[in-house]
């Protein structure tokens, strides 16, 4: 979910029902380096790719069988 993917280096989580939280999140994002943030997120999501997950699952199945 979002809490697994988003951290302070790759974005901002906020309470969508809080105007203050939304305002603060927008200020953080507007003052961020979007290119750096995007590259960070590209690397981070690789561990959730189908290839990565399949390797993990294969390891689990090999231990069980």
Please name the defining characteristics of this protein:
elongated, single chain, 4 helices, 65 residues, mainly alpha
Overview of the structural elements:
- The radius of gyration is 17 Å and the shape is elongated.
- The two termini are 30 Å apart.
- It has 65 residues and is an all-alpha fold.
- 0% of the residues are buried.
- The protein has four helices and no strands.
- It has helices at residues 2-5, 19-30, 34-45, 50-64.
Structural class: mainly alpha
Spatial gap, N to C terminus: 30 Å
Work out the radius of gyration: 17 Å
Strand content: under 5%
Q: Report the count of strand segments.
A: 0
Principal-axes geometry comes out as: elongated
Low-confidence stretches: none
Largest sheet: none
Task: Give average pLDDT, whole number.
Answer: 91
Total helical segments:
4
Element order: H for helix, E for strand: HHHH
- What is the helical fraction, as a range of percent? 55-70%
């Amino acid at each position: 979910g979002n809490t697994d993917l988003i951290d302070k280096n790759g974005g901002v989580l906020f309470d969508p029902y809080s105007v203050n939280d939304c305002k603060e999140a927008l200020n953080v994002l507007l003052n961020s380096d979007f290119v750096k943030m995007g590259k960070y997120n590209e690397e981070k999501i690789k561990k959730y790719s189908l290839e990565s997950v399949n390797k993990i699952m294969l390891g689990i199945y090999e231990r069980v069988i």
